[in-house]
Amino acid sequence: FGGASALIGAALASLSIGPVSEKNTKNEDSQLVANLEGALRELRAAERGADETRAELDELLEARAEWAEKRTSELEQLEELTGEMLELRQRAGRLESAENGVAEARSQLAALKLEADTRVAALAEELEVVRAEAAMSLQAEKTRYAKLEAVQASQATRLNAKLQKAEARSTAERRAGEAAALDAREIEAELRGEIETARARELELEE
Question: Is 77 helix (H, G, I), strand (E, B) or coil?
Protein backbone atom coordinates (compact mmCIF):
# COMPACT_ATOMS: atom_id res chain seq x y z
CA PHE A 1 0.00 0.00 0.00
CA GLY A 2 2.91 2.46 0.59
CA GLY A 3 3.99 2.73 -3.10
CA ALA A 4 0.42 3.13 -4.35
CA SER A 5 -0.23 5.81 -1.76
CA ALA A 6 2.86 7.73 -2.87
CA LEU A 7 1.86 7.58 -6.56
CA ILE A 8 -1.69 8.61 -5.75
CA GLY A 9 -0.39 11.48 -3.61
CA ALA A 10 1.87 12.65 -6.44
CA ALA A 11 -1.00 12.46 -8.94
CA LEU A 12 -3.31 14.37 -6.64
CA ALA A 13 -0.60 16.97 -6.03
CA SER A 14 -0.21 17.48 -9.74
CA LEU A 15 -3.96 17.75 -10.13
CA SER A 16 -4.28 20.24 -7.28
CA ILE A 17 -1.91 22.69 -8.91
CA GLY A 18 -4.79 24.26 -10.65
CA PRO A 19 -6.77 24.00 -13.78
CA VAL A 20 -5.01 22.52 -16.74
CA SER A 21 -3.20 25.27 -18.53
CA GLU A 22 -1.57 25.42 -21.86
CA LYS A 23 1.75 25.12 -20.05
CA ASN A 24 1.01 21.46 -19.20
CA THR A 25 2.85 19.53 -21.72
CA LYS A 26 2.01 16.19 -23.20
CA ASN A 27 4.86 14.59 -21.29
CA GLU A 28 3.45 15.76 -17.99
CA ASP A 29 0.06 14.31 -18.91
CA SER A 30 1.63 11.05 -19.88
CA GLN A 31 3.59 10.99 -16.66
CA LEU A 32 0.44 11.65 -14.66
CA VAL A 33 -1.43 8.91 -16.43
CA ALA A 34 1.48 6.57 -15.93
CA ASN A 35 1.60 7.43 -12.24
CA LEU A 36 -2.13 6.83 -11.88
CA GLU A 37 -1.98 3.58 -13.78
CA GLY A 38 0.97 2.45 -11.68
CA ALA A 39 -0.84 3.44 -8.53
CA LEU A 40 -3.93 1.58 -9.74
CA ARG A 41 -1.89 -1.52 -10.50
CA GLU A 42 -0.22 -1.36 -7.14
CA LEU A 43 -3.59 -0.78 -5.49
CA ARG A 44 -5.08 -3.78 -7.25
CA ALA A 45 -2.02 -5.84 -6.39
CA ALA A 46 -2.33 -4.65 -2.82
CA GLU A 47 -6.03 -5.57 -2.82
CA ARG A 48 -5.20 -8.98 -4.22
CA GLY A 49 -2.52 -9.34 -1.55
CA ALA A 50 -5.00 -8.18 1.06
CA ASP A 51 -7.57 -10.68 -0.26
CA GLU A 52 -4.98 -13.42 -0.17
CA THR A 53 -3.94 -12.30 3.28
CA ARG A 54 -7.57 -12.26 4.41
CA ALA A 55 -8.07 -15.72 2.87
CA GLU A 56 -4.96 -16.98 4.58
CA LEU A 57 -6.12 -15.30 7.79
CA ASP A 58 -9.57 -16.89 7.40
CA GLU A 59 -7.92 -20.25 6.80
CA LEU A 60 -5.73 -19.69 9.82
CA LEU A 61 -8.74 -18.65 11.91
CA GLU A 62 -10.72 -21.65 10.65
CA ALA A 63 -7.76 -23.92 11.33
CA ARG A 64 -7.39 -22.34 14.76
CA ALA A 65 -11.11 -22.86 15.42
CA GLU A 66 -10.83 -26.49 14.27
CA TRP A 67 -7.72 -26.92 16.41
CA ALA A 68 -9.48 -25.28 19.37
CA GLU A 69 -12.53 -27.54 18.85
CA LYS A 70 -10.30 -30.57 18.47
CA ARG A 71 -8.29 -29.51 21.50
CA THR A 72 -11.49 -28.99 23.47
CA SER A 73 -12.71 -32.43 22.42
CA GLU A 74 -9.34 -33.90 23.34
CA LEU A 75 -9.48 -32.14 26.69
CA GLU A 76 -13.00 -33.45 27.28
CA GLN A 77 -11.85 -36.94 26.32
CA LEU A 78 -8.85 -36.48 28.58
CA GLU A 79 -11.14 -35.42 31.41
CA GLU A 80 -13.34 -38.47 30.75
CA LEU A 81 -10.27 -40.67 30.65
CA THR A 82 -9.01 -39.03 33.82
CA GLY A 83 -12.37 -39.69 35.48
CA GLU A 84 -12.33 -43.27 34.22
CA MET A 85 -8.76 -43.66 35.43
CA LEU A 86 -9.73 -42.32 38.84
CA GLU A 87 -12.72 -44.66 38.93
CA LEU A 88 -10.51 -47.55 37.82
CA ARG A 89 -8.00 -46.65 40.52
CA GLN A 90 -10.77 -46.55 43.10
CA ARG A 91 -12.13 -49.86 41.86
CA ALA A 92 -8.62 -51.28 41.88
CA GLY A 93 -8.20 -50.06 45.45
CA ARG A 94 -11.52 -51.60 46.47
CA LEU A 95 -10.61 -54.79 44.63
CA GLU A 96 -7.22 -54.87 46.33
CA SER A 97 -8.90 -54.34 49.69
CA ALA A 98 -11.39 -57.08 48.86
CA GLU A 99 -8.58 -59.38 47.77
CA ASN A 100 -6.73 -58.61 50.98
CA GLY A 101 -9.92 -59.37 52.89
CA VAL A 102 -10.38 -62.60 50.95
CA ALA A 103 -6.77 -63.55 51.61
CA GLU A 104 -7.21 -62.82 55.31
CA ALA A 105 -10.48 -64.77 55.34
CA ARG A 106 -8.78 -67.67 53.58
CA SER A 107 -5.95 -67.55 56.10
CA GLN A 108 -8.44 -67.55 58.98
CA LEU A 109 -10.39 -70.35 57.29
CA ALA A 110 -7.22 -72.39 56.89
CA ALA A 111 -6.37 -71.83 60.56
CA LEU A 112 -9.90 -72.81 61.59
CA LYS A 113 -9.76 -75.87 59.33
CA LEU A 114 -6.42 -76.88 60.83
CA GLU A 115 -7.82 -76.40 64.33
CA ALA A 116 -10.95 -78.37 63.39
CA ASP A 117 -8.86 -81.17 61.87
CA THR A 118 -6.71 -81.30 64.99
CA ARG A 119 -9.81 -81.35 67.18
CA VAL A 120 -11.42 -84.05 65.04
CA ALA A 121 -8.25 -86.16 65.23
CA ALA A 122 -8.17 -85.75 69.01
CA LEU A 123 -11.86 -86.63 69.25
CA ALA A 124 -11.29 -89.65 67.03
CA GLU A 125 -8.52 -90.83 69.34
CA GLU A 126 -10.74 -90.23 72.37
CA LEU A 127 -13.56 -92.10 70.63
CA GLU A 128 -11.28 -95.06 69.93
CA VAL A 129 -10.22 -95.10 73.59
CA VAL A 130 -13.86 -94.91 74.70
CA ARG A 131 -14.82 -97.66 72.26
CA ALA A 132 -11.97 -99.86 73.53
CA GLU A 133 -12.96 -99.19 77.14
CA ALA A 134 -16.60 -99.83 76.30
CA ALA A 135 -15.70 -103.08 74.56
CA MET A 136 -13.62 -104.18 77.54
CA SER A 137 -16.38 -103.17 79.94
CA LEU A 138 -18.97 -104.96 77.82
CA GLN A 139 -16.85 -108.09 77.73
CA ALA A 140 -16.37 -107.89 81.48
CA GLU A 141 -20.13 -107.44 81.94
CA LYS A 142 -20.80 -110.39 79.65
CA THR A 143 -18.34 -112.51 81.64
CA ARG A 144 -19.90 -111.38 84.92
CA TYR A 145 -23.40 -112.03 83.62
CA ALA A 146 -22.31 -115.45 82.37
CA LYS A 147 -20.91 -116.25 85.81
CA LEU A 148 -24.09 -114.96 87.45
CA GLU A 149 -26.21 -117.03 85.10
CA ALA A 150 -24.09 -120.11 85.89
CA VAL A 151 -24.40 -119.43 89.62
CA GLN A 152 -28.14 -118.80 89.27
CA ALA A 153 -28.53 -121.98 87.22
CA SER A 154 -26.62 -123.95 89.87
CA GLN A 155 -28.66 -122.37 92.62
CA ALA A 156 -31.85 -123.07 90.70
CA THR A 157 -30.81 -126.70 90.27
CA ARG A 158 -30.06 -127.03 93.96
CA LEU A 159 -33.27 -125.25 94.91
CA ASN A 160 -35.24 -127.45 92.53
CA ALA A 161 -33.71 -130.56 94.09
CA LYS A 162 -34.47 -129.22 97.55
CA LEU A 163 -38.00 -128.37 96.46
CA GLN A 164 -38.53 -131.84 95.06
CA LYS A 165 -37.18 -133.35 98.29
CA ALA A 166 -39.42 -131.06 100.32
CA GLU A 167 -42.41 -131.93 98.19
CA ALA A 168 -41.64 -135.64 98.58
CA ARG A 169 -41.20 -135.21 102.33
CA SER A 170 -44.39 -133.21 102.56
CA THR A 171 -46.24 -135.88 100.64
CA ALA A 172 -44.87 -138.57 102.88
CA GLU A 173 -45.68 -136.54 105.97
CA ARG A 174 -49.16 -135.81 104.63
CA ARG A 175 -49.73 -139.47 103.99
CA ALA A 176 -48.31 -140.36 107.40
CA GLY A 177 -50.57 -137.76 108.97
CA GLU A 178 -53.58 -139.14 107.15
CA ALA A 179 -52.68 -142.67 108.35
CA ALA A 180 -52.17 -141.41 111.90
CA ALA A 181 -55.50 -139.61 111.79
CA LEU A 182 -57.17 -142.77 110.57
CA ASP A 183 -55.52 -144.76 113.32
CA ALA A 184 -56.57 -142.14 115.85
CA ARG A 185 -60.16 -142.27 114.67
CA GLU A 186 -60.12 -146.06 114.86
CA ILE A 187 -58.58 -145.93 118.31
CA GLU A 188 -61.14 -143.32 119.36
CA ALA A 189 -63.95 -145.52 118.07
CA GLU A 190 -62.60 -148.51 119.93
CA LEU A 191 -62.24 -146.44 123.08
CA ARG A 192 -65.77 -145.18 122.74
CA GLY A 193 -67.00 -148.73 122.27
CA GLU A 194 -65.16 -149.86 125.33
CA ILE A 195 -66.54 -146.90 127.29
CA GLU A 196 -70.07 -147.73 126.21
CA THR A 197 -69.56 -151.36 127.16
CA ALA A 198 -68.20 -150.36 130.55
CA ARG A 199 -71.13 -148.07 131.19
CA ALA A 200 -73.55 -150.82 130.26
CA ARG A 201 -71.87 -153.21 132.68
CA GLU A 202 -72.03 -150.58 135.39
CA LEU A 203 -75.73 -150.19 134.82
CA GLU A 204 -76.22 -153.91 134.95
CA LEU A 205 -74.32 -154.13 138.19
CA GLU A 206 -76.32 -151.35 139.73
CA GLU A 207 -79.52 -153.07 138.92
Answer: helix
Q: What burial letters (b/e) apply to 126-158, b meaning 16+ CB within 10 Å?
A: eeeeeeeeeeeeeeeeeeeeeeeeeeeeeeeee
Supply the pLDDT for residue 16. 46
What is the reported pLDDT for 99? 76
Give the CA distances from residue 185 to residues 22, 107, 179, 181, 190, in Å, rounded to whole numbers and listed in that order.
224, 109, 10, 6, 9
Give 25's pLDDT tier (boundaries 50, 70, 90).
Answer: low
Q: Is the whole model's pTM more than 0.85, yes or no?
A: no
Residues contacting 10, CB < 8 A, separation 6+ = 35
Cβ atoms of residues 42 and 7 within 8 Å: yes
Q: How far is CA 61 from CA 46, 56, 64, 95, in A?
A: 21, 8, 5, 49
Query: Is the predicted pLDDT of residue 119 greater than 80, yes or no?
Result: yes
Contact 23, 51 (CB under 8 A): no
Helix axes 2-15, 26-206, angle to 10 degrees: 140
Closest to 35 measured CA to CA, from 1, 62, 12: 12
Residue 3 in contact with residue 42, Cβ under 8 Å? yes
